[in-house]
Amino acid sequence: MRKPFLARVTVLASVTCVAAAVTLVTAQTPGYRAPRGPDGKPNLNGIWQAINSANYDIEAHSAAPSPVLDLGASGAVPAGLGVVEGGTLPYTPEALKKRNENRANRLKLDPEIKCYLPGVPRATYMPFPFQIIQSQKHVMVVHEYAGAVRTIYMADQTEAPADSWMGWSNGRWEGETLVVDTKGFNDLSWFDRSGNFHSDALHVVERFTARSADTLNYEVTVEDSKVFTRPWKMSMPLYRRVEPNAQILEFRCVEFVEDLLYGHLRKQPSQ
Amino acid sequence: MSINVTKICSGFACFAVFAISVSAQAPYKVPRTPDGQPDLQGFWSNATYTPLERPNNVTKEFYTPAEAAVAEKAAAARELAETEPGTVADVHYDFTQFGLDRSQATLARSLRTSLIVDPKNGRLPPITEEGKKILAMRAEEAKRLGGRWDSAQSNQLDDRCIIMAGPGPPMMDAAYNSNYHIVQAPGYVMILTEMIHDVRIIPLDGRPQPSASVRQWMGISRGRWDGDTLVVETTNFNGKNPLRGSTENMKVVERLRRASDDVIEYNFTVEDKSMWERPWSVEAVMKKTTGPLFEHACHEGNYGLYNTLVGARLEEQQKATGGAIQKDSK
Fold this sequence. Notes:
The complex is a heterodimer. By secondary structure, chain A is α+β, with helices and mostly antiparallel strands. Chain A has helices at residues 2-23, 93-104, 106-109, 122-125, 254-262; strands at 46-49, 130-134, 138-143, 149-153, 168-174, 177-183, 203-212, 215-223, 232-240. Chain A has a nine-stranded mixed barrel. In chain A, a hairpin with an 8-residue loop joins strand 8 and strand 9. The longest helix of chain A has 22 residues, at 2-23. The radius of gyration of chain A is 19 Å and the shape is globular. By secondary structure, chain B is an alpha+beta fold. Chain B has one domain (3-296). Chain B has helices spanning 65-81, 88-92, 129-145, 303-321; strands at residues 3-10, 13-20, 42-45, 116-118, 179-185, 188-193, 199-203, 220-226, 229-235, 251-258, 263-271, 280-288. In chain B, the strands form two sheets. In chain B, strands 3, 4, 5, 6, 7, 8, 9, 10, 11 and 12 form a ten-stranded antiparallel beta sheet that branches. Chain B has a two-stranded antiparallel sheet with strand order 1-2. The longest helix of chain B has 19 residues, at 303-321. The chains are: A alpha+beta, B alpha+beta. At the A-B interface, strand 2, strand 3, strand 4 and helix 5 of A face strand 5, strand 6, strand 7 and helix 4 of B.
């Protein structure tokens, strides 16, 4: 599996590298060298957050009304120029059909509405902060949304023991960049609120690179041969939450969705 | 001169470590992280058969190793009895097979007869008059919610996958999955609890507690190093997950000190003037275990809650209609 995929990526990369250099929204600031941690590695510790509308739709999209009438403008969708390199996701025809069904039935199907774990990379660009806690053996990524957490194994690396929502992540340093290779996903999480989805064949490679003291460059390569015709990329900057009292707070949303998920199973007063 | 006597157990071979803080050499040199913090990192378990409160028929503070072995065996046997073939528990789950008991756990053993060391009788302090009123109000509220299968909200917090024993604070044996992963970075100690992947991120920079308006299930923690000991103070609880009756006014002070490569001494004091006449304190142990921790996506896989509610409604329908069953449409 591994060699053919790498070979394909290499070919793809060489064919598209000129285009990529032009279209990448957040090319690394040339020459920026991150401060080093006590272990000599680039220090990515901190509380970070994406500021974009990718969680609504990773593809380019216009502003749109709230899917819930009562929320009015407060629930409406802000426009976005998209974070996907090349603009459009390379779905297979069947997968595109499913994406459109997902989108039409979003209120019933979006795992975010049910307070399910967000998966990767969606967790990174949800409208919540996350904290990187970086040690030599493990880099922890702790998200405010649903208390989602990722353990990135920098040592003692293994294959995923079983499929999971947040996948199984192995990391390595490539110069200035933390490269995180994640597999072992289930097929239940989405990329955004617009029904963009993946299968359990999802393979995500993320590259975290400091581009200034308070911003990171976040680049993701997504491969999923059951859903997409080729690997594709997204990228965006991540911003440090610089408030001196910034901290990850609880967003324990399970209790917020119990009536939505189980309310119809409540005992009726008459019974 | 203060003398701190710590009983360290390996299996039931126990020995005492005397740490004489002024004059003598420390018995264990706590390793350091690259940024110089005492290193608590790794995978730890606080699974124990030692009860929080001393059993009624026990008067002494410590068992002998032989007595401790007997007590542990008896507790394990009681746990196993839950899965005796033909019992309701056995139909529900095979606890042992699925790791839902302590039979596969790394036990954080202690010779103590109770985890509570203060009050001296090993029992929780008396409840205040205000505390009695609060407990009565909670009982009324539980009645109002109805029977266990009347709604999701009338179930226990763990059945609802909201929070379980484990993350605390204070961090307590959770009956199963009592496992923790500690990772440190400059300025922070992070503790991942296996149960519902609950994470504590403890800042060490001396920042003040936030406004009392911000309340959380796990409270808000602030930490500092006192020599080799991590001291963590937590307030701002929401009070919706009472620890033996505690309220939102609970304050927990935890002390974690690595006593050897394999043991963290974990002591804490709980103060809640709304519930108890005085604070109470625990001396417990976290024992090194093998990682990694796997994702505990509890809510996402909570078929149990859904199915029991469906079952309860179907039973009601059957009673009402004399047998006809409508399918749930959602």
